[in-house]
């Protein structure tokens, strides 16, 4: 009997799961003030803590939820809310098409995994895919932590409600913006990346200023795709 290694080697699944936890931890921390803010706003609109919890658990889309709650009224404008949510979340089609081939998941597993698709999880997975495939364990760690964190923080925000005050006083409203800047910086500084990010940001900012939300989301995404295609086509072939 071999006594040289009495402890079992850590499994690849456990290593991938820990890597997902490590990468998503800063995102989860940054999401807390945003979740508290959403819960407080939703409670002010008349939603109960249970309704906020169910909305976060089943809709699970920060941007779409904020857009919906801003337009919330009694009775709720269902058609307008559905259209705004569809327009804002249309970017997930592009993110899914980009990330799908890089994931070690097939069939129904991939569709179930993409319920938990967020901008942050997509960005982190794309960055990881530059070095290795995105495994189910890595994705599961990120998905479960961020989903649970968002659901709990929004529910807590609804419970606390008016006791929170204005999150802008402590800069909480800038938390996600700072997070996205950090994620984008991790993609490197190639010509294609810079052109894509710059074009997408500029178009989104202009559309938001002159037309307003939620049109800037789709406009920025489409402009970024077009810029990436044109910039990549001009790259010298090896």
Automatic annotation (TrEMBL):
The record's subcellular locations are: Cell membrane
From its record, what is one biological process in GO terms? L-valine transmembrane transport
Q: Which Pfam families match?
A: AzlC
Transmembrane stretches, by residue range? 24-43, 50-69, 75-94, 137-164, 170-187, 194-211, 217-232
Membrane topology reported for the UniProt record = Multi-pass membrane protein
Superkingdom is: Bacteria
Q: Which UniProt keywords apply?
A: Cell membrane, Membrane, Transmembrane, Transmembrane helix, Transport
Keyword hit for Cell membrane: yes
Q: Which GO terms describe its cellular component?
A: plasma membrane
Q: Mind telling me what this protein is named?
A: Branched-chain amino acid ABC transporter permease
* Organism the protein comes from: Microvirga vignae
């Amino acid at each position: 009997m071999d006594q040289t290694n009495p402890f079992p080697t850590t499994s690849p699944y456990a290593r991938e799961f820990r890597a997902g936890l490590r990468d998503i931890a800063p995102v989860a921390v940054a999401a807390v003030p945003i979740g508290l803010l959403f819960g407080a706003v939703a409670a002010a609109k008349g939603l109960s803590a249970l309704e906020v919890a169910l909305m976060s658990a089943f809709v699970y889309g920060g941007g779409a939820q904020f857009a919906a709650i801003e337009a919330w009224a009694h009775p709720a404008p269902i058609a307008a809310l559905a259209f705004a949510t569809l327009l804002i979340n249309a970017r997930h089609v592009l993110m899914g098409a980009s990330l799908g081939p890089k994931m070690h998941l097939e069939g129904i597993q991939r569709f179930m995994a993409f319920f938990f698709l967020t901008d942050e999880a997509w960005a982190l997975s794309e960055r990881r895919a530059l070095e290795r495939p995105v495994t189910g364990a890595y994705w599961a760690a990120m998905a479960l932590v961020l989903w649970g964190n968002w659901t709990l923080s929004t529910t807590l925000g609804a419970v606390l409600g008016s006791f929170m005050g204005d999150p802008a006083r402590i800069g909480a409203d800038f938390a996600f913006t700072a997070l996205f800047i950090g994620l984008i910086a991790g993609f490197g500084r190639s010509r294609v990346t810079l052109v894509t990010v710059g074009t997408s940001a500029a178009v989104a900012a202009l559309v938001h200023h002159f037309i307003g939300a939620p049109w800037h989301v789709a406009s920025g995404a489409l402009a970024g795709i077009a810029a990436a295609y044109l910039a990549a086509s001009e790259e010298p072939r090896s």
